[in-house]
Amino acid sequence: MKAIVAKKYGSAEVLQLKEVEKPIPKNDEVLIKVYATTVTAGDCELRQFKMPALFWLPLRIYFGIIKPRINILGQELSGEIESVGKEVTEFKKGDLVFGSTQIRFGAYAEYVCLPSKYAIVIKPDNMSFEEAAVLPTGGLNALHFIRKANIQQGQKVLIVGAAGSIGTLAVQMAKSAGAEVTCIDSTEKLDMLRSIGAAHVIDYTQEDFTKSSKNYDVIIDVVGKSPYARTVKSLNQNGRYILGSPSLPGMIRGLWTSMTSDKKILFELAGYKKEDLFHLKELFQAGKIKPVIDRRYPLKQMSEAHRYVDQQHKKGNIVITISEQPTGQGY
Which residues does the UniProt record annotate as the domain Enoyl reductase (ER) (predicted)? Predict the structure, then answer.
């Protein structure tokens, strides 16, 4: 089968299209024919191994000290069940599914084996394979942040770094919860943010939200770039500040702030649960969320797709199409 393989850490050029052995599912696994996958900021960070200091050493040990131990990246996918292990009862050959590869990765290939207990669910007919492929990573993280924020009707919510795969879904979920949503990102992304429900937008290249007199009930920093002390001052009484990409100093300061004030700083990382992916599927079917897709690339242009994401210009999601998709199922 064809796959994108990285034998070393580095630039987008380390990604090479190769022929590799097709995997065989174990007893508790499913073999998925991959129709679509994505390029996330996380994929690019892992390719270069640009990780936060807090997680650098344990992740380097897991992924490989000198060179990558996991050669095929890809965190999420949509596709079709090709075969199942003898212990699998939840899926059968021919099921159209989408889900997360979690710590296995491997979606940059024509086929991947994953445990059936992973966050994998049946794709609804009204969801395209492209939409399905981009939903797990951004959606599960966005859902986690929105739940931690405990957003209520009428609250003012600020989302920093709102135009990425997580942010675009968090905007829609917050709006669906009845919040007045303000989004921060770069100039060329603001119109898209308005189109998905942002009541207000801020261009961070022109304006510092912490210097405004406006305060918020919830601030979600997806990218970890908001100045901590000034951001806390921008919270209303009993406000909540979600650190989506926490640093160790930020976590320590957050614990202190939470203990010594009425404001709560939250930084628990998202889990990847099957029931949460079911919930995202329900939100999609109810019309409450719709993934934003910026660009599409074939598998052979993976390096080009990674270079585009490296430039930090993407709006929402980047889709990679792999195998020819069946007609009449979401298209």
Answer: 10-320
CB 143 within 8 A of CB 166: no
Rounded distance between C-alpha atoms, residue 74 and residue 114, angstroms = 13
User: Are residues 185 and 261 located together in one domain of the fold?
Assistant: yes
Domains contained in the chain, number:
2
pLDDT classification of 331: cutoffs 50, 70, 90: very low
DSSP 109: B
- In DSSP notation, 4-31 reads EEESSSSSGGGEEEEE-PPP---TTEEE
Burial label for 214, CB within 10 Å (0-12, 13-18, 19+), is: exposed
CATH number at 221 reads 3.40.50.720
| pTM for the whole structure | 0.93
Taking the C-alpha atoms of residue 33 and residue 66, their distance in angstroms, rounded to an integer, is 31
**Is 245 inside a domain boundary?**
yes
99 plus 171 within the same structural domain:
no
| pLDDT at site 329 | 52
Using CA atoms, how far residue 210 sits from 151, 216, 229, 234, 254, in Å, is 21, 11, 9, 6, 17
The first and second tokens of residue 77, run together, are: 């996918």
Q: What number of helices (H) and strands (E) belong to the chain? A: 9, 15
Tens-digit pLDDT profile for residues 278-308: 999 999 999 999 999 999 999 999 999 999 9
